[in-house]
Amino acid sequence: MSEVQRKKYTEQEKNRIFDEEFMPHIDSMYNFGYRLTFDEDDAKDLVQDTYLKAYRFINSFEQGTNAKAWLFRILKNSFINDYRKKSKQPAKVDYQEVETYYNSEDVDYKMTSDLRVDSLKDMLGDEISNALNSLAVDFRTVIILCDLEGFTYEEMAKILDIPIGTVRSRLHRARNLLKDKLRSYAQNMGYKTDEEE
Amino acid sequence: MENNLEGSGERKLQCSDVSKCFQLLESILDGANIPDSQEILKSKLAKCQPCFEHFHLEQAIKEVLKNKCTKHEVPSELVANIRQKIEEIK
Ligand SMILES: [Zn+2]
User: Fold this and answer.
1) Which residues are CB-contacts of A196 (< 8 A; sequence separation ≥ 6)?
2) Which residue of A has its CA nearest to B21?
3) Could you state, in order of their start, the residue ranges of all structural domains in chain A?
């Protein structure tokens, strides 16, 4: 069976899948890589690596399934296994914390924000980007996947290898942290917040 | 959004179950496959002020993230590099 799997696609089919199903996602892949590493060269390496792996393991890709999610999963694994290990940045002090404490599915849902919709809409792209970039990588990742790339919870669970409940709770926490950042930007920059009323 | 959702006269000021409501609202906003989600959403927003405010804030954040986050242009040589490497391993 694995032999059959391994020989699944002809050269021609491989090329077609690669060109028509994989390459169109290169913009999203590069942006994901860039937002994980904040470095153009590292992002390029990650994306190139991902596409080489994708080609090498193309027989394990099922046609008709979500190629973009499949590619994102490879990139995210490359980031964790290769990039984080070789980079001198400690695998982010926050990572351990995120894995242990923040993986809990108990989330406190409450009215948090005095952030106003109006002031959000006045913010510039750089402010939004900076707020996102300031989050720990695991929180940043769920927001990128959900809000920037439009993946479903099910797809995110597969990309990240975590249960859906964890996707949901991590996303909720990530958004609360993002709101805190945006609220302090709003205050610093003189946008309206309810506190000033 | 329909007009009748905008008037806040009828909405209760305390949400009876914030955790459950907000989680549901966020799932709907994120496009989760929930039966009758549009009806549920409409009725929650019409009846509950905290739900109304939470939903609109989350929706606005989602929109600014999607529309305003700076996109980085793919370096022009990247595609060529990938294709070259693929040719090498073929
Ligand atoms: Zn409510």
Assistant:
1) none
2) A109
3) 11-86, 95-195
Q: What confidence tier does A89 reach under pLDDT thresholds 50, 70, 90?
A: low
Taking CB atoms and an 8 Å cutoff, what residues of chain B touch A150? Answer: 31, 66
Structure tokens at B75: 């370096």
Q: What is the pLDDT of residue A53?
A: 96
- If contacts are CB pairs under 8 Å, which of residues 34-73 in chain B contact chain A? 50, 53-54, 56-58, 60-62, 64-66, 68-72
CA of residue B61 to ligand 1 center, whole Å:
19
Task: Please say whether the dihedral angle defined by the alpha carbons of residues A137, A140, A146 and A150, taken in this order, is positive or negative.
Answer: negative
So what's the architecture of A95-195 in CATH?
A: Orthogonal Bundle (1.10)
Nearest to A171 by CA among B30, B37, B35: B30
Alpha carbons A127 and A104: distance in angstroms, whole number: 30
Q: What is the pTM of this model?
A: 0.85
- Domain A11-86: give its CATH code: 1.10.1740.10
Enumerate long-range contacts of A106-110, CB under 8 Å, 24 or more apart.
A106/A169, A107/A168, A107/A169, A107/A172, A107/A173, A107/B19, A107/B23, A108/B19, A109/A172, A109/B18, A109/B19, A109/B21, A109/B22, A109/B23, A110/B18
- Give tens-digit pLDDT for B5-27: 455 467 899 898 888 899 899 99
Which residues make Cβ contacts (< 8 Å) with residue A89, sequence separation at least 6? none
Domain ranges of chain B: 8-89
